[in-house]
Every structure is written in structure tokens, then in C-alpha cells.
Amino acid sequence: MPSENEKMENNLLNLNKRVSRRAALSTAAKVGITAVVCGVVAGVGGYFAGSAAAPPKTVTKTVPTTVTATKTVGAATVTETVTKTVTKTVPTTVTATVATTPTTPTGKLFEGVKITGATLAGGPKGAISSVLYHYRPIFKELTGADLDIVELSFADLPVKILADLTTGAGKYDFFVPCSNIMGDLVAGGYVWELDKWMKDPRFPKWDPDSVPYAVAQCSRWGGHWYGVPWDSDAWYLNWNMRYMDKVLRDKDKRREFKDKYGYELNPYKWYRDRELTWQKVRDMCEFFTGWDWNEDGEPDWGMIMGLRTGEQGTFWWEPFVAPFIVNPGPMMDRYHNILYYDPETMDPLVKSPGIVEGTKLFVEICTKFTPKAALTFTFAETWDYFLNKQKAMFTFMPPDTFTLVGNPEKSRMRGYLMTTPPPGSEVYYDLKEKRMVEKINLIGDPAGCHWHPWVSKLSKAPEAAYWFSAYVATPEQHRLTTASAYAWTGIDPGFLSDLLTDYGGTATLADYHLPGGFKDPGYPTAWYNEGDLRRAHIAVFNNWFAMDGQYNYHRIPGATAIFTIIDTHIIGEAIAAGVPVEEALYRCWKDINKVIDDYGRDKMKKWYHDAIGYGKPNPYKPRPWLWDDRVVPKDLIFE
Amino acid sequence: MGGRVVKPKFTVYHLFLAIPVLYALSLVIFPLVYSAAISFTNWKLGIPTYEFVGLRNYIDEFHDYRFWNSLRVTFLITAGAVPVEIILGLIIAVLMSHQIKLRGFFRSILLIPLFTSPVAIALMGEVVMYEAGGPINGYLKLLGLQPISWRSSATMAPWTVVIWDVWEWTPFCFLIFLAGIQAIPRVYYEAAEIDGASGFQIFKSITLPMLKYPLITVTMFRLVDTLKIFEIPFVLMAGGGPGIATEVQSVYIYKAGFRGFQFGAASAYSMVFLIIVMVIMMIFIRRVRSYYA
């Protein structure tokens, strides 16, 4: 037996022993190959294990209950019936085998089926994700299917969804992304066409005729439906009626405006008579910049927008310049109803005189009449600046503004929010005649994300995924969702059925917990003030159904890259860095052309034609302009 | 003396060697080789097929003004931040090496930024430098000074990144220098004190030369790290804003890949940047070697 010392000596010898290069490489290669083989075996095993029974889990159920409460309103004691939603955790062990097709109805349509939906990260009460959380237990109750929700950040959503589809992983049965990847989804053949399910009586019926044309285009391609429309996103002009009306009642201020600009300050009349334009807004922004109109001891501003680079900057610029370039017409042809490209050559129109003119005005408002800090503002900061601090007279924002205005934690403007569709322009560029035309041009805007669900072709249960998506879009559910009846959903109203009955819809004031007669029960009984709500619905109707023209959302492949290009050059360089507008637009033009050439110009041309319905009649027919005398002070319309 | 080849025995030594080899193969070599391979293609996310395009991605990059802008911004931030971190770190280390009251407490406080997540630092920067009413601009207003456009000014924005990088990494430099100072034998200082040397002479003739290797190490680490900076420009400056004022190389590459979906091009950009960083480090190491030779 070797002694302890001998053992130690041998160990030391072993440690000090030199391994030859050949031996080391040989060993490393053996280890590497072994690892690769083990990895492949593990991967194959994992693939087969994936089809095993789902693990047991606890189901959380949302149970609505009715509670009667007594509340003092003013001098009276009022008994109110308030429906509260109580969340209970019901520990139920559910072990289900993932089926490859929906089971035949022994009870419920999709009993035992599990689907996964990917959406914007926001939690059970956050924008967009709250819709999935709210309807998950209802979906289970009605169909027997389970829904797993995967939340992804805004930046990760398109990347993870496209990676899932491109690699064939198929983790998501359906997803609710921003519609700017619609082109990538449809042109890539990654999502199901829905027409057959829309006719199938097994599935919930939603009304395509109620969907505004421009919103429908965010779910339709080549005349077929591929997405279920949920969200009617648009940018609206808002102003603070509390201080605007004060100025309008001040004869000295009105004279000052008229002396400076040569015409009367008359914003309500302009809106009523379809004469509200960006040129007039520019003058008003200048007029309200630099003096303390809200009496907080500091000078205030005309406009506030969220101009932070990397946010949704394109959606501020696009609807602003649209009335300078979009020529309404009866056909979808080379010169009419288009914003982004010449359909014959795919040459970006971003350098055209109309867009240059519009962009110059946009940059002027953003640099002279908007606080510089706006270049760092997110949506939340912008809403805070406008609704809470009330330091800007105007804002140009998505419709969540009229959801937030009623909440005293976020706003001090309840009851004073004016909402109008995007202003038009007093001049626009005639693409056919190649000249500027002096005529008021009002163009509706579909700016914004348009959060719509799409059913993946990799889904093993696509019908269940479609059922869920369609259910939310049914008139009654969609009305509740756009009214934010259960949470701030971020799904904006736009369907005709969403609007109040006074304005052609099916919603009533009771849906918003409003008693009528412009009485305000306050928050949280009613999220909205009746005046704010009516003004918002009127603006929604006019934007989607009554403007002179509409343009198609930019949704060919590469749209995400193009949005980034516009955001970088126009919001970033023209506004923040002072690069001349023509140079910034030239850089946009160059970079957009590169994206088009990367994908293939002929391919992009075909996709663009399919996307906009090129050569076909324009389905959009403007309806009569909507107005309601009750919603604005009559004495402030100067005839 | 012809000998037969003796096959080496497989020992536990080889098994331990396997771990770093596996790590290097799977997490360094494979991604590098794969990335280099797709840099010669036009692979886009969402398009399942791609083609070999040769050097087109590389040529396009050199013609892109944003590439040159991002290099300029990266070098500007590096040149601004690294010397300040080193000098400040050295000064603080020298101070902390003396017997001062509450030395332990100050050392702990000074190290907090080092252990804070860079994203948390960037978010903190958003609050602290909020231009419409944050604490810094609030104090400036109280003092009757003009508020500063920390994040909305294209001229000021890169320096804001420098400030936060210095805040984050000076403790790292301080820690390394402090360890180096504490390793210097006391006998040199005692001899210098006996000879009547002043504090500055002691610092110049003893401390600084003895910190030669820590200085080289810290400079190398900070150079490479700052060249690769990402979190502060991306989170605090919203993706390299305003505009492209703080669009460093990492952000430029990220945007090409994850906003533009051009994975082939983004791989090419990252290869170019890798070569740039390697060349800079090789020059640095050669200069250091020749200086100390």
C-alpha cells in the first residue's frame, strides 16, 4: 500500500504532468461531440415530452356581484346600485391533454383545448392585456377551453412573434400586436384567413359593416379578413375648454387675436363648419404660448405632444401631414387616397411638396409652441402635462385621453375636454396636377397601433383562437371593452355600435353609468363625464365616417423599419437636432427606398397593391358631418 | 530512438477542462461563427429564406452616415467618461486609503452605484433629470439659474450619458485602485517621509508608479466596457435620442436588428464593431508594452 507521502507525491506529479497539445485537442473534441449528442437526445426527448399532459394548475375566477350602496351626492342621499367585480381564487386542479383538433361537442365546443395568446405587457388591468385577462374565465365557461396569456414588452412583441413564426416554434396560437407588422404576417403567409369562420354559425358574430373602413383595412388584405378588428386607434386634437372658454369670453383677448392674425378666434365654429385646420391650430398655439393663461404663476404653452424618440413619433407626424397630400377620390388609383408611395413605382412620397409643407408646419409647432421637455415625454408624461398640470392648451393624442380625463388621480380636467378629429389643411398637393391647391382638405386618421388579434397558422387549435377573438368583437362585448367597463383596456371606440344611440350607435348612457341630463355622478361611479363622452363620440364618428377622405395604414412588410426611419429623422433630427426639414425628409426617402429595395421593389409593389386594393373603387363614402349643439357653449360660437 | 506513441490517460483533469471548453464553444465560438456567417446574407426576420449577398452589408454600412455618427458618439462618450472615471477613482482611492473618520461608511456608500443594475440607473436618471420639474432642474430654478435640457438637447445629451456612466463606474475604478494602494508596502512611504518628501511627491514617485498594473487593468476594462455601452443611451435616452445624438454603436446595431428586422445587416455591423474594438485594444496593449519596456 503506498504511504500517505507517496500518494501525495503521485498526486503532485499528476497535477504537474503536462498534457500534449494533441491529447488536449483530442479530449476536447470528444467532450464536445458527447455534449452535442447529449443535447440532441435531450432535445428530441423534450419535444416528445411536450405533448404530455399539462401540469395541474390553479384557476382564478372572476365573479361579478351586485352591491347596493348608499352615497351622498351634494345635499341628497342617493341609493346607487353598483356592480362590483370580485376576483376569487378557486383552487381547481385541471389536467388536460392538449388536443390537436377541437373535440366533438360532448358539452362545450373546445373542451380540453388550451391555447396561448401573446399580447402587450400590462397585467390584468393594463392596456390591451386586460382584455385577455377579463375574457379568459368567460371563454372557459362558454367553450371549455383554457387560455394561457404571454405578456411581452412593446419592443419585444413584433420580434418574438415573427421569430416564433419564422422558426416554426408555434408557441402562440394567436397574438395581439401593433398592426404595423400586418404586412409581415399576411404577406409571409403566417396567419389564417378568417372568411370561412365568419360564416360559420359555431362562432360569435361580429359586424364587419359596423367597422370603419380605415380600421377594417388594418385587418383586411386583398379583400379578405385576416385579423379580427378590435381597436380603432386614431389621434385626436384636444383642447382645455376651461381656459379656452375663459379667453373666448375675454373681449380684449379676442381683439388681440384678431389684430395679430386678421381673423376671429372661433374654434367651436371652425369645428362645426368643417373649417378647423392645422394652420389655424398653429396660430392658436402661438397665441397661447408664453403667457400665464392658467394662472399658476408660470408662462404656459400652446401644444404638448409626446415627442420622445423611439416612442410612437410616426403617429404624430403621419396624421398631421395626411391632409397636405392625401387626395380623396372615388378610386384607389395612383393619385387618390394614398399617403406613402406612388403605387406605380413605389417611390416614397415623403419628399413631395405637400409633405414638405405639412412637415414644416409640424416642426414649427413642435419647436416653437411645445416645451422642449416634450422631446423626452412618454405618453404618460404627456397626459400628465395636459390633463393634470394643464400647462398646454392643446394636445394631439390617442383616444385614451378621454378615458383618463375623468379620473381625478390623473386629471383635473373632467368635464372640460374638447375632442375633435385631426384638423385638415387649407392647402394640399394635387398629385395628378402636381401643384398645391388651396382648398380645405379633411382626412381621417388611422394612426396608432390598432391592436388586433391574428390567428397563427402554426396553431394546433386555430378555431378556438378565432372564437376568442371574435367574441370580444361582438357588438355588446366590444361596447363594454371600448367603454373600459372592466379596466382601462386601451381598446378605442370606432365601430358604429360603440357610439351612443344619439350618434348612430347602440350604446346608452347607462352603459357608462351616467344618469343623463349632463348630470355628473363623479368618479369612480362613472369613468366619464357626459359632456366629455359626447364630444369624444362625435369626434370618433366624424373621424371615421364623415371626413373627406381616408388613407390606408402603412402595413406592407418592413413597416416597422420605416416607422423607425420616420421617427429618427423627423422627430429626432428635424425637431430635436434642428436638421432642415428638406434634409430630414430626404434622409427618410433614401432609407425607405433602401428598405423597399432590400425586400424587392416588385414584391413590395404587389404587396402594396393588395394591401390598399389598388385599381378598385374606394369603399369609403363620407357620411354627413355630425354635430350636437348641446356639447359646446352656444355663446362661444361667433357667427 | 524511435519510440512508440503512448496514449494519454483520461483523467479528472480533462473533465474539469471540458467545462470552460464547452462554455467557449457554445456561448462564444458558435455565436461568433454563426453571426459571421449570416453577416454575408440578407436575412430578415419574418422572411424564411435568405440569399448570400457577399460584402454588400459591409459596404452599405460604410456608406451609411449613421454608422459614422454612431462611431463618433461612441468615441466621444468613451473619451469623456473613461479619463474622468480613472482620475476620480484614483483621487477617491487615495483619500480613502488614509485614516479618516467614518472611512468604512463612506467606502460602502461609494460602492452602491457599482452594484446597481444599469437599467435601474438609467430609470433613476429619467426621474432625477426630468426637465419639466425634476430635482436637479428644480434646484437650479431655486438658485435662479436656467434649467438644463439634459435629455432633449442634442448637444447636451451625450454629456448626460457621460455623467451617468461616470457615476456608475467610478466606484469600480476606486475599488481596484484602493486594493492596489493597500498592496504597496508601507516601508516606501516611511522612507519617503523620513526623506521629507511632500504628499504630492509621494503620490507621484511612489503611489502612481506602484499602481502601474492596476492602472493598465482598469483602463483596459473601462475602455472596452464604455465602447460597448448600451443601457444608458437606450433606456435614459430612449434608444439613442434625441434623434441620433446618443446613438452609440450598440444601439445602432440593436436598431438594425430588432427594429429594422435586418439580422444579416446587424450581424455585419457587429462584426465591424468587434474588429474596431479589437484594433483599439491591440494598439493600447502595444503602446503600454513599449512604454513599460
What does the model show?
The complex is a heterodimer of chains A (639) and B (293). Chain A is an alpha/beta fold and 639 residues long. Chain A has 21 helices and 14 strands. In chain A, the strands form 5 sheets. A 4-stranded mixed sheet of chain A has the order 4-3-5-14. The longest helix of chain A has 29 residues, at 21-49. The radius of gyration of chain A is 29 Å and the shape is globular. In chain A, 49% of the residues are buried. The model of chain A is unreliable at 46-105 (pLDDT under 50). Chain B has helices at 12-38, 56-62, 65-96, 103-111, 118-128, 135-142, 157-182, 186-194, 199-210, 212-227, 231-236, 249-259, 263-292. The mean pLDDT of chain B is 90. Chain B has a domain at 80-258: MetI-like fold, CATH 1.10.3720.10. Chain B is an all-alpha fold. The two termini of chain B are 43 Å apart. The chains are: A alpha/beta (639), B mainly alpha (293). At the A-B interface, helix 2, helix 4, helix 19 and helix 20 of A face helix 1 and helix 12 of B.
In summary, what is this structure?
The complex is a heterodimer of chains A (639) and B (293). By secondary structure, chain A is α/β, with parallel strands linked by helices.
Q: Keyphrases for this structure?
A:
heterodimer; A: alpha/beta; 4-stranded mixed sheet; 14 strands; about 40% helix; B: about 290 residues; mainly alpha; MetI-like fold; globular
Could you tell me the CATH topology label of the domain at 80-258 in chain B: MetI-like fold
CATH homologous superfamily designation of the domain at 80-258 in chain B: MetI-like
Q: How widely separated are the two ends of chain A? A: 116 Å
Class from helix and strand fractions of chain B:
mainly alpha
